[in-house]
Amino acid sequence: MNSAEKPLVYLILGTAGSGRRALVADLIEGGLAETDRPAVLVSDAENPETTATPLPRVDYWKWTGALIEGSLPEEATHVFFVTDGRTNPVDQIEVFKPWLEAQGGELARVFCVIDCQLAEKNPPLLAWFDACVHFSDVVLLNRREGVENKWLSDFQGRFKKQFLPTLFEFVKADRVRNPGLVLEPQARRMSHLFDEDQDWMLTDAEGEEVDEQDGTAGDEEVELVPEEDPYLARRAGGRRVKEIPHIAEFLPPR
């Protein structure tokens, strides 16, 4: 990779203990060429997950609650950024975008690893997974042992009814059927947060959206701003418009 080329970065969402590192190992082994130089960035707050397949170079990043502290590994052509699976993924995504731009990386795809056993056992977590799927190009259904087929069908059907372009794949024994297809850097996510050509909207002095075609703008002073992702929108008091459960409350202690 010459200095003009940007490393491809894969953002890995999911809960702690969902098997993300083993899946990253499989994607690297089965989806990259021998000449590629992969690296993995893992949150320093997470306990190591054991995996039969060793990972390549592993570096760590730190979540401060407002910033990501860490750097893209030098000379890496493909970087797998594993989020903190005990912390709000939306908060992390919000600061991941400017961090990635500052680091000079190019987003290849966003993955969401679903711990199906955890999701089936805790229906309130559906809102948490909804948020992850919204930002994801690929959803990997893992930990399916003992999960009712009806639950799996209903879970997938929920998103099929929304006609999402997102790719859904089953995981078996920590492996996906076609790693190359999963790694293909093609956007399939609903969110436009990472798009180069974002949608724009008119807002008034209070930041509320106005519709020029309907005449609601009137004689007000309006501003053209990038359209805000619904999961990033905040109320006047600072809380998210679309709130999700605190994932740590549903996970075993560290």
Write up this protein:
The chain is α/β, with parallel strands linked by helices and 254 residues long. The chain has one domain (8-193): 3-Layer(aba) Sandwich (Rossmann fold). The chain has 6 helices and 11 strands. The strands form 2 sheets. An 8-stranded mixed sheet has the order 4-3-2-5-1-6-7-8, sandwiched between helices. The longest helix has 15 residues, at 89-103. The chain is globular, with a radius of gyration of 19 Å. The N and C termini lie far apart (38 Å).
Quick rundown:
By secondary structure, this protein is of the alpha/beta class. It is 24% helix and 22% strand. The chain has a single domain (8-193), classed as 3-Layer(aba) Sandwich (Rossmann fold).
Count the strands?
11
Beta-strand portion reads: 15-25%
Helix percent band:
10-25%
**What is the total number of structural domains?**
1
CATH topology: Rossmann fold
Secondary-structure content class: alpha/beta
Biggest sheet features: 8 strands, mixed
Order of helices and strands: EHEEEEHEHHEHEHEEE
Mean pLDDT: 88
User: In DSSP terms, counting alpha (H) and pi (I) runs of 4 or more, how many helices?
Assistant: 6
Organism: Opitutus terrae (strain DSM 11246 / JCM 15787 / PB90-1)
Protein name: CobW/HypB/UreG nucleotide-binding domain-containing protein
